[in-house]
Design a protein that fits this description.
The protein is of the alpha/beta class. It has helices spanning about 15-30, 40-50, 70-85, 105-115, 125-140; strands at about 10-15, 35, 55-60, 90, 120.
C-alpha cells in the first residue's frame, strides 16, 4: 500500500505521443512521478530501472499484430506486470467493433482475465474519473 504523502511512480505506455502528453500533466498536477514509454520493450526497460507503482497501458500499439482477435504482446506485458505485482490500468481508443472478436465488452473481459485493475476508454475518459480510478487502484494495492 502506498503511504500517505509518498509519491507514486506511474508508467504510461502508449505509442501516441498526444495521449502520453495529455495524461502526463494531469498526473503530475496530482503529485505523481510519471515515466512514459511508446512500446512494450521501452516499458520493460523503464520497469527494470525504476520503481513503478502503476502502469497505464494502451491496448494497441502501432505495429502490433492481431492474432486470434487479440494482441499477444499486450497479454504478455500484462502477465509480466502481474508477475512484478504492478497493477495495470488498460486504456484504449477501441470503443466499437474493429473485428469480429474485438469490441469494448470483450476487451473488458480480457483485461479482467489477465488481471488488469481497470479499463478506461479514451473517448470516454473524464478527468475526475481518471484521477479517482488511479487513486483507488493505488490505494488498494499492496506495494
Amino acid at each position: 500500500m502506498i503511504l500517505k504523502g509518498e509519491k507514486s511512480y506511474i508508467l504510461i505506455v502508449d505509442d501516441d505521443i498526444d495521449w502520453r502528453e495529455r495524461f502526463r500533466p494531469i498526473l503530475e498536477r496530482e503529485g505523481y512521478n510519471v515515466y512514459c514509454a511508446e512500446n512494450h520493450d521501452k516499458a520493460i526497460q523503464v520497469m527494470n530501472k525504476k520503481k513503478i507503482d502503476l502502469i497505464l497501458l494502451d491496448i494497441y500499439l502501432t505495429g502490433e499484430q492481431v492474432r486470434d482477435g487479440w494482441f499477444p504482446s499486450w497479454i504478455a506485458f500484462l502477465k509480466e506486470s502481474s508477475s512484478r505485482n504492478i497493477p495495470v490500468i488498460v486504456i484504449t481508443g477501441i470503443n466499437s467493433d474493429i473485428g469480429s472478436d474485438v469490441n469494448a465488452a470483450s476487451l473488458s473481459e480480457k483485461a479482467k482475465k489477465y488481471s488488469a485493475a481497470a479499463i478506461l476508454f479514451k473517448d470516454r475518459i473524464d478527468r475526475n474519473e481518471f484521477v479517482e480510478t488511479i487513486k483507488n487502484v493505488l490505494r488498494y494495492t499492496d506495494r
